[in-house]
Amino acid sequence: MKPFTQSLESNIKQTFTYSHAKNKYNYEGRAEGYDSLSFFKKNVSAKKSFSNTDGFGSSSF
Question: Looking at the record's lineage, which domain of life comes first (predicted)?
C-alpha cells in the first residue's frame, strides 16, 4: 500500500475515532491503545466493511 498523503491521514484520524470504530466496526480494543491509522489500514487491506473505499487515496489497494 502506498503511503497516504498528509491530508488523507488527517481525514482518517478525524473520521475513524475510537468511538466510531467501536460503534460501527465493533472494535474491541481499549481506547488507550487505539490508533486510527493502523485500524484503517488493517481494515482496508482486509476489505472489512470498506468496500466503498476501493481506490480511495491510492490505486494500489
Answer: Bacteria
21 domain-assigned: yes
Q: Flag whether 58 is in a domain.
A: no
Nearest 5°: the CA angle 30, 10, 52 is 80
Long-range CB pairs of 13-20, under 8 A, 24+ apart, other chains included: 13/37, 16/40
Q: Which range marks the domain in which residue 13 is found?
A: 6-25+35-53
Residue 40 lies in a domain: yes
Q: What is the pLDDT of residues 32-48, one digit of tens each?
A: 999 999 999 888 877 75
Helix extents (H) in the chain:
6-15, 18-25, 36-46
